From TrEMBL:
Residues 62-224 form the Methyltransferase FkbM domain. This is Methyltransferase FkbM domain-containing protein. NCBIfam families: fkbM_fam. Gene3D superfamilies: Vaccinia Virus protein VP39. GO terms for biological process: endoplasmic reticulum to Golgi vesicle-mediated transport; endosomal transport. Pfam families: Methyltransf_21. Signal peptide: none annotated. It comes from the Bacteria. One of its GO terms (cellular component) is plasma membrane.
Length: 242
């Protein structure tokens, strides 16, 4: 098992980064052998791992991917041997992905359900930058706006077709600060079928799930909500045979 991990790290990372990560893992294991570690904001990667993480070479699509390690839903899986497509509107963060994750396809793009020119608002904390005016109004009371720029959106369908993503893949993660439904609905789920969709759902009412357009959209497309934790919904493809 240790040999396999070493082999995977040197496959996934450049030599210095693989050596660094192996050293950190070894020290952490020595200090607390019973601990588990999460790179995500609220433990999403641990939950994903419990649901579908047993495969060693999976495929993900991470929209609103932010940093390649910090607050990442997919870095733990890249370390295991997975690969996929990462998308974020922040060019500097995408450059970090290209440095840290050479086997991934990492793209600077803004995703929506139609191609159009929009204003993208950047905050001093890139994790809360957004297209959503409601989200921008809320966060402008807490964070400083540092830039507004005109961008042309792409659909997720077009991105996956252009980069020849597999029709059936393991994980779709969406976290785009209030514009999540528009990203989700830009993908034809009859053509591209992620096994698990993890999506941020602001103001979701677990007592009345049908009031959520995300919930209803995925229900119509044969996805079952199997969990909601803090801010994210977890939807499993109901068409997968047990």
């Amino acid at each position: 098992m240790v040999f396999n991990r070493i082999k995977t790290y040197f496959q996934q990372f450049r030599i210095l980064k693989a050596t660094r990560l192996l050293s950190v893992d070894a020290v952490r294991k020595w200090l607390d052998p019973c601990a588990t570690f999460s790179y995500s904001q609220t433990g999403e990667d641990r939950i994903i791992d419990a649901i579908i993480g047993r495969v060693s070479e999976g495929y993900y699509v991470d929209v609103g991917c932010h940093h390649p390690q910090i607050l990442s839903n997919t870095f733990a899986f890249y370390k295991k041997g997975w690969k996929g497509i990462n998308i974020d509107a922040n060019e500097k963060l995408i450059q970090e992905y290209q440095n840290w994750r050479p086997r991934d396809i990492s793209l600077c793009a803004v995703i929506s359900n139609k191609k159009q020119e929009v204003v993208f608002t950047e905050f001093d904390d890139p994790a809360v930058s957004s297209l959503s005016m409601e989200h921008i109004d809320e966060w402008s009371n807490h964070r400083k706006i540092i830039n507004k720029r005109n961008v042309t959106t792409s659909t997720l369908q077009d991105i996956l077709e252009e980069h020849m993503a597999p029709g059936n893949f393991d994980l779709l993660s969406i976290d785009v600060e209030g514009h999540d439904y528009e990203v989700l609905s830009s993908l034809n789920l009859n053509i591209y079928r992620p096994k698990l969709i993890v999506i941020e759902m602001h103001k979701f009412n677990i007592v009345n799930p049908g009031s959520s357009e995300i919930y209803e959209y995925l229900k119509v497309h044969n996805y079952n909500m199997i969990g909601y934790v803090i801010m994210n919904g977890y939807f499993l493809d109901a068409l997968i045979k047990a």
